[in-house]
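A common beginner's mistake is to predict each chain separately and then try to dock the pieces by hand. The better habit, illustrated here, is to supply every component at once so that their relative placement is modeled jointly.
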Amino acid sequence: MSSNPNENILTGERFGAAAKKTNNILGDRIFRVVLTACGALILIIVAAMIAVMTQSSWLSIQKFGFGFLTGQTWDPIKGEFGALPFIYGTIVSAVLALLIATPISVGVAIFLVEQAPKSLARPMAFLVELLAAIPSVVYGLWAIFVLAPLLRVYVQPFLQQTLGFLPFFKGTANGIGMMSGGIILAIMITPIITAVVRDVLEAVPVTQREAALALGATRWETTKIVLANANSGIAGAIVLGLGRAIGETMAITMIIGNRPEISASLFDPGYTIASVIANEFTEATGELYLSALIEMGLILFLVTFIVNGLAKLLILSVSRQTAQSQ
Amino acid sequence: MTTLTAACAFGVIAVLIFVLGYIAFQGISSLSWQFLVQTPKPVGEGGGIGNAIVGSLILLGLASCVGIPLGIIIGTYLAEMGDGWFGTIVRFVADTMIGIPSIVFGVFVYAVVVLQQGYFSTLAGALSLALIMIPIVTRTTEEMVRLVPKSMREGALALGAPQWRVTKDIVIPAAMTGIATGAMLAVARVLGETAPLLFTAFGSRFYNIYLDEPMASMTVQIYNYAISPFEEWHAKAWAATLVLVTLILFINIIVRFLTRRKY
Amino acid sequence: MSKISVSDLNFFYGKAQALHDISIDIPEREVVAFIGPSGCGKSTFLRTLNRMNDTIPIARVEGKVMIDGKDVYEPNTDVASLRRKVGMVFQKSNPFPKSIFENVAYGIRINGIHKNRADLYERVEKALNDAALLGEVKDRMNTSAFGLSGGQQQRLCIARALAVQPEVILMDEPASALDPIATQKIEELIVELKKQYTIAIVTHNMQQAARVSDRTAFFMLGKLVEVNPTQKMFTNPDEKLTEDYITGRFG
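With all components supplied together, the output reads:
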């Protein structure tokens, strides 16, 4: 342990130590630059996606302008492309999915976080998450051969008999259509909404619950207070689910019917933005046709990017609130 | 109210069991050794998904080679030095990227690669899958690296280790199990991807190992079988689905087992 | 000459000042103990000596910390080399997720101290021996360090610190998480190590300070109240405040 009298480690005035010091500082600097550059890669990818898709769809953007969003005709032969039926189909199927999935997901999350015993909640939570692991194309297959026949034979005739006066439930019950699409999307986004709502509920501080219980609130009243606290987080979860529903491709392509029509009836077939890309991309012969499809991709990208960003901000605002109150 | 919420929970799980049970029930009857090794054949002549299984593995392997290391590096960046404004932007964009529909990555790769080269290729398919993997791996890596206790980093710093060695020698190995499970989840996720492959890797009826040629995949094969009008092919779709879903659930359960302590 | 000489040290977490005008000299090959109520700044002070507080972005230091006559806060200081020279043992044992051997070898490797593989082995064994751990782990050097008991883990961390040939060892409540027997081993070890190293130890346990240290410094509310030889400190302190603390009137 006898320290070398010539050695002064602090300033590196030891034989060879000056080089070592430079190495350390240089190493840290290179490390930082490389890692930061890789981080920047994410931004570059996203920027490149916007740039490339804008450029590739420029023909269509130039020709149709904003009319692309309001045009109702989709005719590759005449070279006329309007996205409205697809936008309509996307919105209606997604909203339908949210209407079904939101209450169920919130219910599942409340049960798992607030009510179920831990030993039951854990495996159940895992099973619910497994729903998200099943590929979209598998849901599509299942929807074609199981869900659609079920709807056609049992559900839709029943709806027609009881609520047939509503415009949503008119027309022929054939299983394949907007309603099946909405239901299959609902199944697919339920685990996603559930997971976020669970996180949000778990983030509500225990003190909140205890305060409510101490005031003599019942368990359900306490849950309501917890829910009120988690409001914007649940909103974030719903928006996140919306983003997923808008972007879902395979399952909905296989079940929604793929007809670019705007119809009030949920029994009728529809078409979504993602579906038209999946279906027609490899068949797009003309330059304008391809350009219009890529513009669809660009719209899908921008919409989901904004929707997801919004969801993230909403969810973040909750964790920030709870962080402050703790 | 508990009855209602419990009904929701058990109902959702019932759907899961229904879906999985139906796949098992329908798929098992068409499953055979020939099915697992043969290439697709015209209706009535049998055929299988051998080339699609190999294709999926090749696509997945290539995508993992790019997506997993990049995701780990970016995740490490976010955890170790990502608290500034730049890191915050990268994190936000990466998180948002997770929610971008996979088909959009397909469109992007089509425009960048396929359109330029003039043909569908394995590389294009793998690239689109890699782009999907990057933000997923990034996200889990950041979480796992952040879990490494500060005391462990300080222990290494106190020995005179420079920051980069602390990260490389101590932090990453300590977080490795978590990072690996995150990577496996990303693999499971893209194993089930169909949409981005439709017009990048496209599909193929043959065994193929060339990266500049179209490549078959299980998911695209399932899709093609499913939307066909033939009963025989529908049966094949179910059998292929059984194989695919078994693989994916297997990965998920392994991951669950590895991360059990976390819950 | 003192090994460590601190003058007019002020330390800030953002706007809050955690240390006020600390001045203290620590002679070579002595054990100095820092005592005081929790939150008094004794750990913060210890961490200024090897610039461990650099990892906190909002931390700021004023004043001088001279080690061997060089100010460690000079801009051209190589912090990594400083920390090699001024080793540290933490409150909670923090072995790396590696084998016992690799835990001790790590510091030797990164600093490139060993000449060859045999030398590396020798150094690891010596460090483990100096930390009074070799006998217990000789047969399982390649097993995970997490398999050791708490006291063994802490001695492993001491061995790890010794392996890089430091001159000063900082110990931040090294025995606070240990049972009495493990604590006693650590204390014996400190007395043994004093022959070769300068040691600064933070402890909340006054008996421990009395047992192991040559000199004791009493901190309160971020100020250094008194430094004196341990003997004097515990029998006849200069300050009334010190006496009150030592006799248990507060704290």
